[in-house]
Write a structure and sequence with these properties.
409 residues; alpha+beta; 5-stranded mixed β-sheet; 11 helices; 23% strand; flat
Length: 409
Amino acid sequence: MSTYLSRLYDEYRRAISEGQSVTDAAFAANRDMTPEETEHFERAMLAAETRRKEIEKIKSFEELRAAGDAFREVTVPIVERATGKAPTDAALFRAMFAGSAGYDSRLTGAVRSGSPDLALRALQSAGGSAVETSFADFVTVYERTFSPMLRDDVVTVLNRADGSPLVLPRVTADPNHGGTVTAEAAGINELDATVSSVTLNPYKYAITNLWSSELSADNTIGLEDLIARTTGRELGIDIGAHLTTGNDSGQPNGFITAATNGGTATGTGATYGTYFGPTDLVSLFYGRAAPYRQVGSWMANATSLAQIRNARDTAGNHIWEPSLVAGAPETLLGRPIYENPAMANGSAAKAVAFGDFSRYVVARVVPIRVESSIHYKFSTDQIALRTIERVDGDLPDAVAIAYLVNAAI
């Protein structure tokens, strides 16, 4: 971890500690925060949030830099053998987009050598050529930045070579024995579990990026990174939203649609908060069976997370805990909590979810299809880059996750 990133973590922890000291003082005195304390608290939380976003940005940058180093390590020997000298980074990027080297689209990301003429013919036939796999990797990084629903450490992601239907069997009810004791020589109850299935059929999400041939030829600004940001941002928002609240009609079945209703919050009064309070969160937590609680995690959007930060248990302790370990998520009641921008907030909204998100299954066709063309916009002298992602998702085990409905206020 870089020195700068370590410093950001230190500043983040200090800001959190400063904000908590203000609320602790008001709580100990059994009073509301004064206007000065409120201003102090909001300033500390703003500083903490600014540091958190900067930490995520630097972490993403370090991942991209590592991928870029790996790309250069593989390509430089090939170019050196062909030209007798090492290329610059700008030359590598221009060569990749201009088609002066062939790229293998397999997940290994290995580069195969080829002449410019062969690469140009590849561009001119069928309107495109494959772009090196590191671009798809960059797109994936930015998708993960915007939605936890594509993170394989949060949900179960099944990477598949094709989009054929994937049937997931499930047991929705155990045999109902009812505690019956079987007498000697008496008949034994014949019981069946309730078995059904869900089917995943990956849906297509596609984007075509356009830029001028002049920009491609003159690029010295990291064109690949800029395009990956815009593509990953849009794909991540759209796919993440459907994996969260999709209605299973022409789109994935989002976990909110498939999950169990964990109850309606009581709102203001005995609980601390406008739409929900700590007792509501505790009830949601213990509403899941022990196996789900032991590996469970939370999801909410930024507005709900801001309210959760203020929540306390009956002893006056904050139930939300900041992460003090680099790369580790923040926790609520001892379990990780993730920001999901696709979740709702406000009156009667399904604002907070808890459960075992690894039971949510995402079927994803890999690798991401990335193809370029110099002919699609020939009349305007533009280069086109098409990115296609195929994804579906569902929650076979509906009781694994539950959501909290905000009080109707």
